[in-house]
Amino acid sequence: MRCPRLWLIFTWLLGSCLHSTNLISMVKFTNVNCITLDKPFADFAYCKLKALSRDKVALSLRVKLFEIPVNNVSLNVEFFKKYNGYRPFLFNKTLNFCEFLRNKKRIGLLEIIFKFLEPHSNINHTCPYNNDIIVDRLILKPNYFALLPLPAGEYRIKITVGAYNDWKAIVNVFLQTWE
Fold first, then answer.
1. Is residue 131 over pLDDT 80?
2. What start and end residues bound the annotated signal peptide (predicted)?
3. Domain boundaries in the chain?
């Protein structure tokens, strides 16, 4: 059942590459929304965007962990595209984040995302996590999406984070791409 779905995604991506003469030339964050589901476990110290220029926006967030070390982290990543409301688009995956960090190549799309996230965060190591989680001044650049040409539009990436088989937080990141 997975092969037809993968084939559809592959042909869509290939078609996008072949028929699109203009890949996205601009991309920026438009909003971020962080929700804590288990405040005794962790809470957001801050979760914000800062406009650096008209087309450049930096994302920063800090999660304070109260129960450390954290040895078991789950992650659900969902992509949505705005079509008269946000609709599921291209990707919805739940995974063991600690295992993913040991072998990032297993999930190609997340590997692409992690490559541009890693230099701006302290989550660039495997479990356990013994300190706050920080993402500092992450700025999106069009070349990050060269391997994944997205059509121009508005997107939402919903990241649900869990630990010890219990969901702890949700981060909704909104972005816009245009040619």
1. yes
2. 1-19
3. 22-178
